Amino acid sequence: MARIDLFFRLMLEQKASDLHLASGNPPMLRINGELIRVEHEPLTDEELRSLVYEITPEQKQKIYEETGDVDFGYEIPDYARFRVNFYTERQGIAAAFRLIPSRVLTLEDLNMPPVLKKFAMLNKGLVVVTGPTGSGKSTTLAAMIDYANLKRHDHIITVEDPIEFVHRSQQCLVNHREVGPHTKSFAAALRGALREDPDIILVGEMRDLETIELALTAAATGHLVFGTLHTSSASKTVDRIIDVFPTNQQNQIRATLSESMKGVIAQSLFKRVDKPGRVAAMEILVCDSAIGNLIREAKTHQIPGMIQVGKKKGNQPMDDSIMAYLQQGAISAQEAYEKAQDKKKFRPFLLEPPDDFED
């Protein structure tokens, strides 16, 4: 057993989502969204480097020493998987470890809206899950892939950096590819995927023009593509995809996206106040012909209004999701107010509302 496995076992015992190790500091665990110090002596750069190198493949060590940061996955067989990132900072090496649960949570486990099942059963198109880092995008995507794996008879290819949730082939054949060990880049894997007879492609991160362009091509040519972006709303997601392209291509991309985009899930995590844990509030956009017209005509600023009036189709405004949790007593009024889009709706719930100019 690697020495660092003791910290990983502590993570599971404490139900922590992340472990942070940094030179000159004691270890810290993220529990329910907050960092908690572990009772341990501060780690020196030499101690920490020795600790983490014990689990680091030689090739990844080389990348870290050349670039100053590296990502990879680490697994304790039959126990847990971790997403690993090393980076160099002022006092030396530092590392962040994200726990990937060994069991994929289902859409029912996560209490997700029924429309996510419909997204998982689409024949083709692009579905994007968005939100800040640590907002649960991977968990939501894994639940939709799990549903498809149970209900469809198709070929699923995932491309991630690194591989997070591992899906055992059930009704579907599931192939996992990791950037680095299995393919040079997301773009290279996507180009290859088009020749590998996939029905569903999961792109761990749509991080550059080439990857986004290939994802759109795959969605437009009869594949169901799931991807992630670091945007905060459905309309900003559409704008982000279009803005990646040169100005002279944007009209063409709007036309392609108007036909290929099938859904956007923008989510944010909230700390529960009724019991330990967190919940995900979601804005959901179901793309129909009316939304397609707004994308094509560069009227994405009208999308929030369409979400509001299209709830029967499965659309869900972020503030409605936040309000539901607040009224259930699951989240605090303060956090609801801070993360809401229309803060005036949440002012009456605050014991000490801020001045109007802070809205």
Quick rundown:
The chain contains 13 helices and 13 strands.
Written account of the structure:
Helix 6 (about 185-195) runs parallel beside helix 7 and helix 9 (about 250-260) runs antiparallel to helix 10 (about 290-295). Helices cover about 35% and strands about 25% of the residues. It has 13 helices and 13 strands. It starts with a helix and ends in a 20-residue tail after the last helix. The strands form 2 sheets. Strands 9-8-10-11-7-12-13 form a 7-stranded mixed beta sheet, with helices on both faces. It has a 6-stranded antiparallel beta sheet with strand order 3-2-1-6-5-4, with helices on one face. It has about 350 residues and is of the alpha/beta class. The model has no long low-confidence stretch (mean pLDDT about 95). The radius of gyration is 21 Å and the shape is globular.
Overall form = globular
CATH fold group of the largest domain = Rossmann fold
Roughly what fraction of the amino acids lie in strands? 15-25%
| Order of strands in the sheet with most strands | 9-8-10-11-7-12-13
Helix count equals: 13
Mean pLDDT score: 94
CATH architecture of the largest domain: 3-Layer(aba) Sandwich
**Major sheet description:** 7 strands, mixed
- Given helix and strand content, the structural type is alpha/beta
> Structurally, how many domains make up the residues?
2
Q: What pattern of helices and strands is seen along the backbone? A: HEEEHHEEEHEHEEHEHEHHEEHHHH
Q: Please give the number of β-strands.
A: 13
**What is the CATH top level name of the largest domain?**
Alpha Beta
CATH superfamily of the largest domain: P-loop containing nucleotide triphosphate hydrolases
Kindly state the percentage of residues in helix.
25-40%
N-to-C CA distance:
53 Å
CA-based gyration radius: 21 Å
Low-confidence stretches: none
